[in-house]
Amino acid sequence: MIKKLLLTPGPIELTPAVRQSLVANSIGHLSPTFTTTFQNALNNTKRLFKTTNGQPIIISGSGTLGWDLFGSNVVNRNDSILLISTGFFSDSFASCLTGYGAKVDKLDAIPGHIVPLKTIQEKLQKNNYKAVVMTQVDTSTAVLNDVQGISQLVKEFSPNSFVVVDGVCSIGCEVFEFDNWNIDYCLTASQKAIGAPPGLSISMVSPRLLKYVMNERDTTDQVTSFYLSFKKWLPIMESCIQGKPSYFATPPVQLILSLDVALKELLDATPRGLDERIEKSSKTSDWFKQQLTKELGLKMIPQDPQYTAHGLTTIYVENPADLIKFLADNGVFIAGPMLKSIPPYARVGHMGVSAWDNDNNQHITRCYELLREYCTTKSKV
Ligand SMILES: *Cc1c(COP(=O)(O)O)cnc(C)c1O
């Protein structure tokens, strides 16, 4: 029987240790064991985002919930928001915020490109935005945004705007610095580069944004969410990070146990920790992309390596469904296209253990060998 291998841009393959954590006996959500685990996971989440002052919020949900967390806690009717779109996920974030009454000014990149900084600067100089929203890696195209550059522009030309980042496809596999880059809100999910199962919404909130939500925001005319309220969750997260159990709504105990294990593997299993993992992932990504373009003559959506993601590869193919089936018949599962406005393409995810341990597990190497076989025998690409 062939070994099955999941190479989608999330969920990703789990390491044996993460899988093992999921078969533990049931434990109480207020037990000392769980509280200590949650405390570790919260502290390690801060290390993952490179922050000392940020407030982590970890609750049940998927990546998408992070958009709603921002919408329901921050956005008031008619708030003006600049959203820099690099694809499908940025557009969905925009739809979410529109639902909370925001007036979203959307700057659309040409597919495969970023929005030039100059264009963003002009917008910031002309308007007054409550927040500037971007996606670090849009998983529909594999475009890597210049988060640091955009945040610098905001600091210079619109310092009162909150800087908001969707990091679902980048936290854990791209360089990201919450404090140094002056980010106010960043969201991710457990099942992408972090390498835990789906089910956790993981966010980081700056002290400045937290102060706004807790003390300054006027919610007189807003309908607000009960479950998503930072005012409800903040005391819980603060208590847990001090090692004291506290209850608002039951946390997904087993998922948090698995998150704790996954974060330790990312942050503490190698001498240089996260940086080493990210470097290894980038190396695998560079190798894979180079093989596909140089050896197989395939074309990727982003053309500029500076703006190309390291957690997935998008390749133009004539018949994505046929390629996906060929790989699936050989045990390797990849993803199809998301944007309809450009020629057909396929997406290969290589986040987490598949990338940082490719030297040993050969996950990406195996995918490459199959792609080569497909290209040479079928010549349909
Ligand atoms: C996957 C993804 C999401 C959505 O996450 P879900 O867990 O599927 O809700 C949002 N943004 C980006 C950039 C993603 O890659």
TrEMBL record:
<dbReference type="InterPro" id="IPR000192">
    <property type="entry name" value="Aminotrans_V_dom"/>
</dbReference>
<dbReference type="InterPro" id="IPR024169">
    <property type="entry name" value="SP_NH2Trfase/AEP_transaminase"/>
</dbReference>
<dbReference type="InterPro" id="IPR015422">
    <property type="entry name" value="PyrdxlP-dep_Trfase_small"/>
</dbReference>
<keyword id="KW-0663">Pyridoxal phosphate</keyword>
<feature type="modified residue" description="N6-(pyridoxal phosphate)lysine">
    <location>
        <position position="192"/>
    </location>
</feature>
<dbReference type="GO" id="GO:0005777">
    <property type="term" value="C:peroxisome"/>
</dbReference>
<feature type="domain" description="Aminotransferase class V">
    <location>
        <begin position="21"/>
        <end position="334"/>
    </location>
</feature>
<dbReference type="GO" id="GO:0004760">
    <property type="term" value="F:L-serine-pyruvate transaminase activity"/>
</dbReference>
<feature type="binding site">
    <location>
        <position position="347"/>
    </location>
    <ligand>
        <name>substrate</name>
    </ligand>
</feature>
<dbReference type="InterPro" id="IPR015421">
    <property type="entry name" value="PyrdxlP-dep_Trfase_major"/>
</dbReference>
<comment type="similarity">
    <text>Belongs to the class-V pyridoxal-phosphate-dependent aminotransferase family.</text>
</comment>
<protein>
    <recommendedName>
        <fullName>alanine--glyoxylate transaminase</fullName>
        <ecNumber>2.6.1.44</ecNumber>
    </recommendedName>
</protein>
<dbReference type="Pfam" id="PF00266">
    <property type="entry name" value="Aminotran_5"/>
</dbReference>
<dbReference type="InterPro" id="IPR015424">
    <property type="entry name" value="PyrdxlP-dep_Trfase"/>
</dbReference>
<keyword id="KW-0808">Transferase</keyword>
<dbReference type="GO" id="GO:0008453">
    <property type="term" value="F:alanine-glyoxylate transaminase activity"/>
</dbReference>
<dbReference type="GO" id="GO:0019265">
    <property type="term" value="P:glycine biosynthetic process, by transamination of glyoxylate"/>
</dbReference>
<keyword id="KW-0032">Aminotransferase</keyword>
